[in-house]
From TrEMBL:
This is Chloride channel protein. One of its GO terms (molecular function) is chloride channel activity. It is a multi-pass membrane protein. Its main location: membrane. One of its GO terms (cellular component) is chloride channel complex. It is found in: Membrane. It comes from the Bacteria. Keywords: Chloride, Chloride channel, Ion channel, Ion transport, Membrane, Transmembrane, Transmembrane helix, Transport. SUPFAM superfamilies: Clc chloride channel.
Length: 470
């Protein structure tokens, strides 16, 4: 046998050798290696999607529609154009984005429809090898077009599906056990979201919390920590390490127990609005599936309606992170009409339901942040002129609103609290925020609802599903 033939044989044996080592390795070395690999891919995936989304937004909303939305501090902190130069083009561009996204998704990978995180959670519970690589690529492109054209969606769902899809690929190629395959998928979900939000600790905890409504996957925590810090390091090395919303409330200190009353009000409202978000979103999902007509066209109709809404409320376009940034500053929030602040949580719920619930592609975590942020901002605007003990800055109320609203309806209160604290550089808000998050979570838990339909109640239910025949 020639030297070239020997070399070729050795190269072909590498995957088999790696798979054998992984299957035989003990827990810690195995997940130091696999967690690092998944984290590196999650970080790169987050970079690719962030760049693609920025480019799509500039081309579609900026060049075609003549509108530049504001951006968060970590995305440049631009103030935005402030008005539409071609208002007639806005509904057309959002509809076009929905149509192109629909063509891509329903022609190439129909399972890439919607927000994506549920598909990853379902893979965790049912079959960690089930996520096709084609779905990952379709999700990336379709979501960049949907959100970049003005559709109301978040960037975390596509990123989670990219990294979870890679975890699923590892499960297939390395022939991982079902248990290790599930860990790989869960680690992918959390590390991808943690990377794109610049929140590695929250991402690591999210890996463990997101599969269930009322439980925690403890075996995932160490692999999740490894993957999340690697994904954060990769993402930050390329696009920067600063918090997404800057140090929004770094100077806030909890000094007056009376403030707990105001945070409790935010928590109660956030829990109720979280329930409204989940109920409205899935009502539109179910309605879209029942209505006659091509699945390709429905996201375009949803986009057209969102574009028409945006003529009165431009805040509903895109991810909305720039509007969260502005809501944290006293001067900027005061410049937004009160009726807009009060209406925006409900308008964002409707816009997201139309954009993603109709079959468009994008996340629902990000819109949940906007909904919660303006819930807190509305409470601050109403109380600040007349009630003692309200902080001079709206930032603490906005931050706690984000924690309570999505943390409760995602059934992952601790993970979302940590993520929002990292995204805003506001660890000091955690203590009073616990009151709001606890109340919101209790309201949602009592209802039995969640924003992620694929979540199971607990590990016992998961074991019964995994052990059931077929």
């Amino acid at each position: 046998m020639t030297r070239v033939a020997h070399l070729a044989k050795a190269v072909r044996s590498i995957p088999t050798s790696v798979a054998t080592w992984v299957r035989n390795a003990s827990y810690l070395p195995k997940w130091l290696v696999l967690g690092s690999i998944i984290g590196a891919i999650a970080g790169l995936g987050a970079v690719v999607f962030s760049v693609a989304l920025a480019g799509a937004t500039h081309l579609l909303l900026g060049e075609l529609a003549g509108y530049q939305p504001p951006t968060a501090a970590g995305d440049g902190g631009a103030a935005g154009s402030g008005e539409f130069t071609r208002p007639w083009a806005v509904p057309l561009v959002v509809a076009l984005g929905g149509l192109v996204s629909g063509v891509i998704v329903f022609t190439l990978a129909p399972e890439a429809e919607g927000h994506g995180t549920d598909a990853a959670i379902e893979a965790f519970h049912r079959n960690p090898r089930m996520i096709r690589i084609r779905v990952v690529l379709v999700k990336l492109v379709a979501s960049a077009i949907t959100i970049g054209s003005g559709g109301s969606g978040g960037r975390e769902g596509p990123t989670a599906q990219i990294s979870a899809g890679f975890g699923s690929l590892l499960a297939r190629k390395l022939d991982l056990s079902d248990r290790d395959g599930r860990i790989a998928v869960a680690v992918g979900i959390g590390s991808g979201i943690g990377a794109i939000f610049g929140a590695p600790l929250g991402g690591a905890v999210l890996c463990c919390a997101i599969p269930y409504k009322d439980d925690f996957e403890y075996d995932v925590l160490v692999p999740g920590m490894v993957a999340s810090i690697v994904s954060y390091s990769v993402f930050g090395s390329i696009l920067g390490f600063g918090p997404l919303f800057g140090a929004a409330a770094s100077e806030y200190t909890f000094e007056s127990p009376i403030q707990l009353v105001w945070f409790a009000i935010i928590g109660i409202l956030a829990g109720l609005i979280g329930l409204l978000y989940s109920g409205t979103f899935y009502a539109f999902v179910d309605l879209s599936h029942r209505l006659p007509g091509s699945r390709i066209v429905k996201p375009a109709v949803g986009g057209l309606l969102v574009g028409l809404m945006a003529l009165a409320l431009p805040e509903v376009l895109g991810s909305g992170y720039g509007w969260i940034q502005q809501s944290m500053a006293r001067v900027d929030l005061a410049a937004i009409p009160l009726w807009v602040v009060l209406l925006l949580p409900f308008a964002k719920i409707l816009a997201t339901s139309l954009s993603i619930g109709s079959g468009g592609s994008g996340g629902i975590f990000g819109p949940g942040m906007v909904i919660g942020a303006f819930t807190g901002a509305a409470v601050w605007r109403l109380l600040e002129p007349i009630v003692p003990g309200v902080p001079d800055s709206p930032a603490p109320f906005v931050i706690v609103g984000m924690m309570a609203c999505f943390g409760s309806i995602a059934r992952a209160p601790l993970a979302v609290m940590l993520m929002v604290a990292e995204m805003t550089g506001s660890i000091g808000v955690l203590a009073p925020g616990m009151v709001a998050v606890a109340l919101a979570y209790l309201i949602v838990r009592r209802s039995g609802k969640t924003i992620y339909r694929a979540q199971l109640e607990n590990r016992e239910e998961a074991r019964q599903l995994q052990n059931s025949p077929g």
